[in-house]
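Students often ask why we bother encoding 3D structure as a string. The short answer is that it lets us treat folding as translation between two languages. Here is a chain of 178 residues written in the first language.
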Amino acid sequence: MVVKPTTGGSSDGVTRVATADAYRPAVAAARAAGEDVLVESFVTGREVDIALFRDRDGALRAGATLEVGVDRDGVFDRARKYDGTAEFTVPARVTPDDHEAVDRAARVLYGVLGCSGVARFDFFVTGAGVVLNEVNTTPGFTERSQVPLMYAAVGLAYGELVAELVEAALVEHRPTAR
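And here it is in the second language, the structure alphabet:
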């Protein structure tokens, strides 16, 4: 199983638990990063992420899918996220059907969850289909972060992406005449 806090991000307090003895320390690590703890089944599959944002014209725009290379234990941990060893494949190596399933699920979730701005949807592609891992509503945003890499792969460079997001936010938050 996987034990993690429900808040915080960046994989703080996330532990893969393979034995009963490891459960209590994992819960303690999760609680150190956030008050509420989530315990879930470990999903075996490839992590495939996609980002979406609604542009100034109201169109929902997707970046390319991105596959996360994981360590031997199958966990994309905090160290790999920030030490420069993370391996990303853009676009992800998925079948057209898996790409469609990831894209469709992310679009539904964006609307149902009431997302605005950019959101990244992290899925596992398994033999039984796609499984949602998490929705990141405040994803990292350096030029080497996942979201900018996804949009660069579809022709939207970092500076252009930032400008598009600012323009969309200005339209979304523009006061209406009364």
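Translate back mentally: The chain has two domains: 2-40, 46-172. Keep this in mind for the problem set.
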